[in-house]
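Narrative of accomplishments. A recurring question from our advisory board has been how the design workflow behaves on a single, concrete structure rather than in aggregate. To address it, we present the structure tokens for one chain from the evaluation set, followed by the sequence designed for it. No filtering or post-editing was applied between the two.
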């Protein structure tokens, strides 16, 4: 904070750093500069006693020792004449006799900074320049506000006449310094003033646009709109006062320029209050802000009146302006006491604005003769807002990142209950979008895996051991399913139901890898003295419905389909054949050559709930590598034996399956078919003996 204050003060000093005027007090309309060194003190303000000729143009002046005197810079309002005090309306000439150094080599110039009325400059009775057209009546009078530099003749004795006329503004006369310097110095200074004001205006414009864009990105950030409106008001104030740089780009008439100056002045205070209210709504009074809004609205309506009326507010509104600043200072100090975020730099900024505003008001009223510093202090304030806003944005970004991380963790945690893949296929990006009754039709492959004889097995374990065992088992098979582009829909006790939405071979590959993982798991269990486990896996492909089931207070994602029931039944068939992996014929046919594994046909089996039997296929790669190789090697013999069995040539089938068992005693499928052949032959003999 200390560094920020130091940088701000250095900026203010740099904005004000220029060669100051040296005041030379005139006495009875005369200044002797014969001994003045312009190289050492290049700018001389011609202040003091100027001769004052009321309602008189330069060509009609008749000098005498009884001429009236008026100290400049000063308005003529209230000047005591024989018939009373002067108002702001009228015309007059101010005369000064000037004696310059004999050895002066430079071309000298006179700078008359902007006044609120029109004026003309005469040197030794000759017109040299001015602003607008001063005249003795309103018909020929043309108001205009601008600074003027006139080149002086090479003469050591000069008579300067400043002819001023006013019929529109509340005050008439000269309220800015009349400065004598070399022409080069005068031009450089005026150019510097215009450059400074252009830079300040550019800063306000840039900051205003920046915060306006930020507001459109975040409509809830009202403080960004507040600083935009305040920057806009100060921008209009900057380009319509001082050197009035707006005239460099737009030929604006006097009445429009004057109203632009006043409307920007009227609204800068309430908009500043509004900005702070949006930042500290609990510390600033909304009612106080509304009072200033109402006052500014009334004054703005007054701009429809002639300038002589609304310019009268210049002597009243500063009170409201300063009062507004004091309210801001009070409420901001209260926010600072409550340790509100960023209250400290804002308190420093508003203090600078109050100093600058007070200086500018007193300077405009000719109470003091300094220079305008309000825009510079506002620039510092605006930069403080950028700094403050940057810190707020940074803190918001940190909070947003933390919130995003929390949301990510939340989503990650929730995905362990409702898989993100389930939401994706349901057409939802977020669990919050899910509603009761959402559903979608898909064709997928369903995998069921179940531990054999788990009921008897679990009875030997405590409840905690059961949970530990199941978690240990599921931690091994779950990643395999995800790795093969599937996702677990649900756990049903020790059973796992998984869905594979893309490729049938993904499900078969996952089943083979699951069996391999179970074999490794069993070796670890054997080392610990635990009995091994066997898992049967059934796979079927079909159309199914993913959706949200339940009621409004309790919902869950589920899958409803005959394909799911069939996959579950096929898993049960693995017990019948003592097989590891069994798939439906429909899955086998649809996969075709893309199955990628060795298989053999089993048989048609009756499925509970199905009117027609279902043909099933065994995947041989689910066994141990040695057994799998032996079964694959005997696949042709098995096919011949099965063909005989299906032709009901049970003798041939019996011999074929018996031969297979001689080669593979652990071939449970061949053993089952051999027993069926024996039963069929025995039944045939009984039927023959009976007949």
């Amino acid at each position: 904070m200390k560094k920020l204050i130091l940088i701000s003060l250095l900026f203010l000093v740099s904005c004000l750093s220029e060669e100051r005027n040296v005041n030379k007090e005139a006495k009875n309309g005369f200044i002797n500069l014969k001994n003045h060194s312009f190289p050492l003190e290049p700018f001389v303000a011609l202040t003091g006693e100027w001769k004052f000729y009321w309602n008189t143009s330069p060509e009609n002046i008749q000098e005498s020792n009884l001429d009236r005197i008026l100290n400049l810079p000063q308005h003529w309002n209230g000047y005591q004449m024989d018939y009373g005090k002067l108002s702001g309306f009228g015309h007059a000439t101010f005369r000064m006799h000037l004696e310059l150094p004999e050895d002066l080599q430079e071309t000298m110039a006179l700078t008359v900074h902007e006044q609120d009325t029109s004026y003309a400059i005469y040197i030794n009775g000759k017109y040299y320049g001015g602003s607008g057209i001063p005249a003795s009546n309103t018909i020929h009078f043309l108001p205009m506000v601008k600074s003027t530099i006139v080149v002086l003749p090479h003469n050591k004795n000069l008579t300067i006449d400043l002819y001023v006329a006013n019929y529109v503004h509340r005050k008439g006369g000269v309220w800015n310094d009349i400065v004598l310097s070399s022409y080069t110095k005068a031009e450089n200074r005026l150019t510097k003033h215009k450059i400074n004001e252009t830079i300040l205006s550019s800063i306000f414009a840039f900051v205003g646009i920046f915060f306006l864009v930020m507001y459109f990105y975040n409509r809830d950030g009202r403080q960004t709109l507040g600083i935009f409106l305040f920057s806009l008001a100060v921008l209009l104030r900057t380009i319509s006062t001082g050197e009035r740089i707006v005239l460099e780009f737009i030929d604006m008439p006097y009445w429009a320029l004057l109203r632009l100056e006043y409307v920007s002045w009227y609204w800068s205070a309430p908009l500043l209050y509004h900005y702070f209210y949006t930042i500290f709504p609990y510390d600033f009074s909304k009612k106080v802000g509304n009072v200033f809004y109402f006052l500014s609205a009334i004054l703005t309506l007054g701009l429809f009146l002639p300038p002589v009326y609304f310019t009268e507010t210049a002597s009243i509104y500063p009170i409201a302006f300063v009062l507004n600043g004091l309210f801001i200072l009070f409420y901001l100090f209260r926010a600072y006491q409550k340790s509100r975020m960023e209250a400290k730099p804002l308190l420093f900024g508003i203090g600078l604005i109050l100093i600058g505003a007070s200086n500018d008001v007193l300077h405009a009223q000719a109470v003091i003769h300094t220079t305008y510093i309000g825009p510079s202090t506002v620039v510092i304030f605006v930069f403080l807002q950028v700094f403050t806003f940057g810190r707020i944005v940074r803190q918001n970004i940190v909070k947003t990142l933390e919130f995003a991380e929390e949301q990510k963790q939340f989503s990650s945690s929730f995905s362990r209950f409702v898989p993100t893949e389930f939401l994706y296929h349901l057409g939802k990006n977020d669990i919050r979008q899910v509603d009761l009754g959402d559903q979608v039709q898909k064709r997928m492959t369903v995998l069921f895996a179940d531990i054999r004889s788990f009921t008897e097995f679990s009875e030997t374990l405590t409840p905690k051991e059961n949970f530990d065992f199941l978690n240990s088992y599921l931690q091994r098979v779950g990643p395999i399913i995800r790795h093969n582009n599937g996702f677990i829909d649900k756990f049903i006790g020790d059973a796992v139901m998984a869905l594979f939405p893309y490729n049938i071979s993904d499900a078969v590959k996952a089943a083979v890898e699951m069996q391999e993982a179970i074999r490794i798991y069993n070796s670890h269990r054997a080392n610990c003295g635990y009995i091994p486990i066997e898992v049967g896996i059934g796979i079927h492909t079909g159309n199914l419905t993913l959706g949200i089931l339940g009621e409004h207070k309790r919902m869950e994602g589920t899958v409803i389909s005959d394909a799911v029931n069939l996959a579950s039944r096929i898993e049960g068939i693995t017990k019948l054949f003592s097989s590891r992996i069994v798939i439906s014929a429909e899955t086998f046919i649809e996969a075709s050559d893309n199955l990628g594994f060795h298989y053999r046909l089993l048989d048609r089996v009756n499925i509970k709930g199905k009117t027609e039997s279902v043909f099933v296929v065994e995947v041989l790669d689910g066994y141990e590598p040695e057994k799998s190789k032996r079964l694959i090697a005997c696949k042709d013999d098995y096919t011949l034996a099965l063909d005989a069995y299906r032709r009901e040539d049970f003798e041939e089938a019996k011999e074929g399956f018996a031969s297979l068992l001689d080669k593979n005693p652990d071939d449970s499928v061949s053993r089952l078919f051999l027993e069926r052949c024996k039963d069929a032959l025995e039944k045939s003999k009984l039927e023959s003996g009976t007949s």
